Amino acid sequence: MRNLRLLITTVILVLIMPLEGICQETKYYTAQSPQKPYIPITLFQTMCLIKEGNRKCKEILSALSFDVKDRQWTAKIVDVDKGNEEIISIQILDCTIKSNREYVFHVSDGNNTSKLILLLSPNECSLNLILDSSSSLFFTSLGNNEELTAIVRKGNSIHFK
Q: Which domain of life is it from (predicted)?
């Protein structure tokens, strides 16, 4: 009976946690903000390096997650197919939620500050990391593999429940 209560409590908390992030009235967060917006893991299928107008793309199943540890707010992108090997990890300085599904972050790699834009929609989730005035790293949930696109779309459906 006690285990059943614990299980029910855990399930209720898991269901309520995403609502906490959605119901926040604050639209701007800094690294020092006591609360951060709740953004579930986001999956991507294609990664592109865009440099001086040239685009080089690679199909790669990757995931974006956010973490707060020791007062450091970070975004991490990992290669899922390679056992969650880290592609990039960057410190978040602040976040502006422009609409219910658009997040604009100012980020730093320790030397430079840049912008990270996360757009979420049921059809496509995309992430654009602007590296400098002529280059960016772009991730999208779309790709040539329809089966993988369906899997990624299903995984990202957590954002729209």
A: Bacteria
